[in-house]
C-alpha cells in the first residue's frame, strides 16, 4: 500500500478540484482502485476510502465534472457502491459499528453526483444505482426503521438513507422503463408502509403549532424525504397505493397545518419549509396524469381547508413591505396555490374568494421570476379569458 502516493493524489484533487482534466481524475481513480484491491481488512479499506473521497465530497453539487460518463462508469464508483453503501448498510446490526460517517459521506457524494444527471450520462447512472443488492438493502433497512427503535439514535443511518433516496429521486426524474419500475416497486411499497404507519402519524401529531421547530433526522426522513421520493414514483397502474397513503395521512397533516398561524410562516426555517413543501406537494399532486380527478373528488374537503390556509399565508405575506418579503416562503406559497388549481373542484372554490386575484396581481410585481411565473399561471386558471385579454 502506497500511503504517500494516495496522499499525493488526494492533495492534488483538493488543490485543483474539478479544474483537473477528466483524464487526470481517471488516473487518480485508477490508482485508488489498484490500492484498494490489495486490502482485505474492511476497516482499513473504509478508512482509506474516506481519505480518497474527502476532496470529492467537498465539491459543490453544482460542479458537473464528476458526472462525466468516463468517471461515472469507473470501477471506483462501483467499489463505493458495493463496499461502502451495500456493505455498511448490512453492517448496521454489528455492535460497536463506527463506520456511519463513511456511509454518510459516500451517500452525500452519490446525491451530489446524481444532481447532475443528463440524457448523456443517464444510462451509466442507472447502471450504478439501479442495482438489486442496493435497492434490497434499502428496503430491508427502511422496514427496520419503521418497525423498530433499534437505530433511533443513529443519525448517520437516517441521513444516509435520506441522501440515497434523494439520489434515486434525481434518477427517477428521468424516464424509467418497466423493468426498472419493477426493481424499484418494493422500495416504493415500503415507503408507502412507512408513510401510513403509526410512526408517521405520531410524528405529525407531535409537531408543534409553529414553523420554527426543530426536526430531527428521523422526522426529516419520514416527513420530508419519503414524500419527495414518492412524488417521483409515478406508478399509475396502481393508484390504490397513493389513495391509501392519502386516506391515512392527509387529514392528519391538514389538521396540524391549519392549526398554525399564517403570520408565522414567513419565519419558517429551511428544514420546516422543505418538509411542508414536499409533503404538501405529494398530498396535493401525487401523480401527473388525468387521473388526478380521483383525488379531487375523494379529498376535496381537506384540499379546500389546505388551500384556504395557503391563501391566508399569501395575505399575511402581502401585509409586509415588498423589501421584507421572505422570498423562499413566497415561492412555495405560489407553487402550492398553482398545484391546487389542477383540481377543478378546488379551482372553482378558489374562484369564489374575491381577495385571491387582487393578491396574485400584486405578486406579479414582485422582483422574482419564479414568483411572477406562478402568479401568472394561477391567474390564467382563475380569470376569465376576456379579463386576461384586458390585463
Provide a descriptive summary of the structure in words:
With 391 residues, the chain is mainly α. The protein folds into two domains: 1-174; 176-391, no CATH class. 69% of the residues lie in helices and 0% in strands. The chain contains 21 helices and no strands. Helix 12 (217-230) runs parallel beside helix 14 (270-284) and helix 13 packs across helix 16 (300-317). The longest helix is centred in the middle third of the chain and has 19 residues, at 239-257. It starts with a helix and ends with a helix.
Order of helices and strands: HHHHHHHHHHHHHHHHHHHHH
Distance between the termini: 72 Å
Count of structural domains: 2
Biggest sheet overview: none
pLDDT < 50 runs, ≥5 residues = none
Q: Which overall shape is indicated by the principal axes computed on the Cα atoms?
A: globular
Helix content: 55-70%
Write the layout of secondary structure elements.
Layout: H1 3-16, H2 22-36, H3 42-57, H4 69-72, H5 75-90, H6 100-114, H7 122-129, H8 132-147, H9 155-172, H10 178-195, H11 198-205, H12 217-230, H13 239-257, H14 270-284, H15 292-298, H16 300-317, H17 327-341, H18 344-350, H19 356-363, H20 369-382, H21 385-390
Helix pairs in contact: 1-2, 1-3, 3-6, 5-6, 5-8, 6-9, 8-10, 9-12, 10-12, 10-13, 11-13, 12-14, 13-16, 14-17, 16-17, 16-18, 17-20, 19-20
Amino acid at each position: 500500500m502506497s500511503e504517500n502516493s494516495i496522499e499525493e493524489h488526494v492533495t492534488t484533487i483538493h488543490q485543483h478540484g474539478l479544474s483537473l482534466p477528466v483524464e487526470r481524475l481517471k488516473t487518480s481513480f485508477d490508482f485508488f482502485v489498484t490500492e484498494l484491491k490489495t486490502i482485505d481488512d474492511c476497516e482499513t479499506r473504509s478508512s482509506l476510502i474516506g481519505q480518497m473521497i474527502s476532496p470529492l465530497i467537498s465539491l459543490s453539487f453544482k460542479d458537473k465534472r464528476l458526472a462525466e460518463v468516463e468517471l461515472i462508469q469507473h470501477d471506483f464508483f462501483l467499489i463505493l457502491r458495493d463496499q461502502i453503501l451495500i456493505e455498511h448498510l448490512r453492517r448496521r446490526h454489528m455492535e460497536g459499528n463506527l463506520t456511519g460517517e463513511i456511509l454518510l459521506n459516500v451517500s452525500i457524494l452519490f446525491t451530489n453526483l446524481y444532481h447532475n444527471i443528463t440524457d448523456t450520462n443517464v444510462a451509466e447512472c442507472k447502471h450504478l444505482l439501479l442495482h438489486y443488492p442496493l435497492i434490497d438493502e434499502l428496503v430491508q433497512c427502511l422496514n427496520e426503521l419503521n418497525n423498530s427503535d433499534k437505530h433511533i439514535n443513529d443519525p448517520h443511518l437516517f441521513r444516509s438513507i435520506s441522501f440515497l433516496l434523494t439520489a434515486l429521486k434525481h434518477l427517477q426524474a428521468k424516464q424509467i422503463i418497466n423493468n426498472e419500475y419493477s426493481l424499484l416497486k418494493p422500495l416504493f411499497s415500503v415507503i408507502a408502509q412507512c408513510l401510513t404507519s403509526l410512526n408517521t402519524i405520531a410524528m405529525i401529531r407531535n409537531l408543534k403549532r409553529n414553523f420554527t421547530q426543530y426536526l430531527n433526522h428521523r422526522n426529516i426522513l419520514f416527513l420530508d424525504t419519503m414524500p419527495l421520493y414518492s412524488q417521483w414514483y409515478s406508478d399509475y397502474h396502481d393508484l390504490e397505493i397513493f389513495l391509501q397513503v392519502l386516506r391515512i395521512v392527509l387529514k392528519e397533516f391538514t389538521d396540524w397545518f391549519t392549526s398554525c398561524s399564517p403570520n408565522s410562516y414567513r419565519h419558517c426555517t429551511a428544514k420546516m419549509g422543505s418538509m411542508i413543501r414536499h409533503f404538501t406537494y405529494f398530498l396535493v399532486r401525487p401523480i401527473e396524469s388525468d387521473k388526478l380527478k380521483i383525488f379531487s373528488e375523494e379529498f376535496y374537503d381537506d384540499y379546500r381547508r389546505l388551500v384556504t390556509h395557503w391563501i391566508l399565508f399569501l395575505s399575511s405575506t402581502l401585509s409586509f413591505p415588498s423589501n421584507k418579503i421572505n422570498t423562499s416562503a413566497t415561492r412555495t406559497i405560489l407553487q402550492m396555490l398553482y398545484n391546487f388549481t389542477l383540481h377543478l373542484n378546488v379551482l372553482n372554490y378558489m374562484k369564489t374568494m374575491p381577495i385571491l386575484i387582487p393578491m396574485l396581481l400584486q405578486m406579479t410585481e414582485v422582483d422574482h421570476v419564479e414568483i411572477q411565473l406562478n402568479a401568472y399561471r394561477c391567474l390564467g386558471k382563475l380569470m376569465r379569458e376576456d379579463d386576461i385579454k384586458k390585463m
